[in-house]
Amino acid sequence: MVRQETGLPLVRLEGQTAVLDLLTSERDSAIAEATRLRNQIHSLLLQVEPEYELRLPSLKSRAGLAALVRYKTRSNSQVQFERAVSVRRLAKRLALALEQAEDNARRIREMAKERFMPLTRLCGSIC
């Protein structure tokens, strides 16, 4: 239930509309989590290898994610080694967040296609 303002009737979210709302919220949360994880990874990489962007693909690409999952430092420092381990751990969490976001986006598209008429079809029938 959502109430816009006092005095207005209650608007009830039911059935597919409620599911779409839930999926959209979950997708948005997964995307926000992916952004936070990329920022953490970027921060760690700057400490390990300040010019990492010259060697690694974009952190927003599939190739970049694959490179992060198997990332190793060239340094012999124990601290840098542990930072690289942390990059790999965060990359696995990033992969999961991106997978969940895409899965929810796919489900949203499927439900919207079944339930909601595209505006072009709507206009074609009344214009």
Task: Give a short overview.
This protein is mainly α and 127 residues long.
Question: What are the main properties of this structure?
Answer:
mainly alpha, 127 residues, elongated, 4 helices
Describe this structure in words.
The structure is a single chain. It contains 4 helices and no strands. It is mainly alpha-helical and 127 residues long. Helix 1 packs antiparallel against helix 3.
Major sheet characteristics: none
Helix content: 55-70%
Structural class: mainly alpha
Mean pLDDT: 86
Radius of gyration from CA coordinates:
21 Å
String of helices and strands: HHHH
Shape: elongated
Low-pLDDT segments, ≥5 res: none
What is the total tally of β strands?
0
Task: Tell me the number of helical segments per DSSP (H or I, 4 or more residues long).
Answer: 4
Distance between the termini: 34 Å
Break the fold down into its secondary structure elements and pairings.
Elements: H1 15-48, H2 62-69, H3 78-115, H4 119-126
